[in-house]
Amino acid sequence: MKKIQIFLLIFGFGLMMGCGKPVMPPLKYDEPIDFEVKKNAYLNWEFGKQYSGKVQSYDNCHNNSAGLIGVLLVSAISSIDHANNPSRYTVSYGKAEQAIFMTSLRDILRKNHVFKQVELITDLASLTKKDVLVNVFFKTARVTSLGGGQTITLSVEMIVTTNGKAPFKRTYLVKSDAQGFSPSFQDQQIDVSNRLLGKIIAGLQEWHNTINLRSK
Amino acid sequence: MKLPIIRLVLIVLSMGLFIGCAQQPRNVQLSENFWQNKNQKIAIASFKAPKPQVRTVGAQGLLDLAVNTTMNSGMNTFLKRTDLTWYKEINSSFANRLKEHTIKTSVLPQEFEHDKKSRELLLSQVEADKVLTLELRAIGARREYYSIIPKGAPEAFCVLVGELIDPKDKKVWWHHEVVIVQPVQGAWDQGPNYPNFTNALNVAVNEAKQEILDSFFSGK
């Protein structure tokens, strides 16, 4: 009886593995962050345009040697499958990845004690004038599929506002370039997210230096 | 006995060399040093735009290529009318943004040919500290084929390359290649004006334009 249960469990896991695409894990940041702002910060995430890429399907990989009739048959079957399961053939840097990015950014800022307190926010009305608002707007999140591989391009606008001072605005463009033999799409997601994370943290440091210079 | 081993080593070595040849030039990010030099003068040059057309990719023989080109003639006729004013105006977009950063900028009035000779001539004659070149490498549609069988619908296609070079030592300060492949929403085969395809092409062009600007001014 127990053996049957274990078998069913493994079988169930096996079935589920095929269902969903792997989700990007939380990001890590090991570089030292040596600036401190004695204020509460709120991170606001804005979702912009999203363009998905295509996954190389079976027919694209293998039908070059199938002959004309073979190609026609495989293409016909494949087009039906594409119509029935569109999500299986598309990849994106979507809301799920952006949410993971934002929570990772919050956790890294918390861990390094950059602000007194860091929270993700959805209601801007609850902010006080003393608080720091870091608005991260994913203007474009694009996946380009060419030659069997994918490249992720993120164009992100960060605006930091505090105490009625002029907003500090920066735009960052990052492109995935994961190394190694045939990197997976998740590798590309992690690579592009780490690049963006580095830029955002450098941007916050620049903002901190700017307000310090102004106050001196 | 030794000879086959040497031969094998040479083959492996030469394969390694060929792999290097096939790689595309990597994007080069613009360093912060560039923005600190406020006395430098930048000249912006652009190259002649290619003919907008349908690019057929995939396994095709010469005969297949001829058949596919004939089949795409309607779309090619339509693509000839593509408005490329945006490409002519992209120079001034860069010039205005550079001037906002108090960097002296001039836009060269003529368009250069794509060949190596014109490129070298430009770099040798220009009177500037750095040359910013913008090049539309491809525009139109892209469609995959196996022989004469299309593997899918045509997609809007735009390839734009930007480069910042020091004419003295030919050092590349910035290089960015934008490749946009934009699928058509809804039906694509709506000749003679292809409205859905036109929308996709407009998206591709706007995205390419924005990305090249965002890349150069990233962090600014």
Task: Kindly describe this structure.
The complex is a heterodimer of chains A (216) and B (220). Chain A is an alpha/beta fold and 216 residues long. Chain A folds into two domains: 33-52 and 92-216, 3-Layer(aba) Sandwich (Rossmann fold), CATH 3.40.50.10610; 57-91, no CATH class. Chain A is built from five helices and seven strands. Chain A has helices spanning 2-17, 58-62, 67-84, 95-111, 185-215; strands spanning 37-51, 53-54, 90-91, 115-121, 132-146, 149-162, 168-175. In chain A, the strands form two sheets. Chain A has a five-stranded mixed β-sheet, covered by helices on one side. Chain A is elongated, with a radius of gyration of 22 Å. The N and C termini of chain A lie far apart (75 Å). The model of chain A is unreliable at 13-19 (pLDDT under 50). With 220 residues, chain B is an alpha/beta fold. Helices cover 42% and strands 29% of the residues of chain B. In chain B, strands 1, 2, 3, 4, 5, 6 and 7 form a seven-stranded mixed β-sheet that branches. Chain B is globular and about 55 Å long. In chain B, 27% of the residues are buried. At the A-B interface, helix 3, strand 5, strand 6, strand 7 and helix 5 of A face strand 7 and helix 7 of B.
What distinguishing features does this structure have?
heterodimer; A: 216 residues; alpha/beta; 2 domains; 5-stranded mixed beta sheet; 5 helices; B: 7-stranded mixed beta sheet; globular
What is the secondary structure topology, with strand pairs?
The complex is a heterodimer of chains A (216) and B (220).
Chain A lengths: L1 H16 L19 E15 L1 E2 L3 H5 L4 H18 L5 E2 L3 H17 L3 E7 L10 E15 L2 E14 L5 E8 L9 H31 L1
Parallel strand pairs in A: 1-4, 1-5
Antiparallel strand pairs in A: 2-3, 5-6, 6-7
Chain B lengths: L1 H21 L9 H5 L4 E7 L5 E7 L2 H10 L1 H8 L4 H16 L3 E9 L3 H10 L4 E17 L2 E2 L4 E11 L6 E11 L12 H22 L4
Parallel strand pairs in B: 1-3, 1-4, 2-4
Antiparallel strand pairs in B: 4-5, 4-6, 6-7
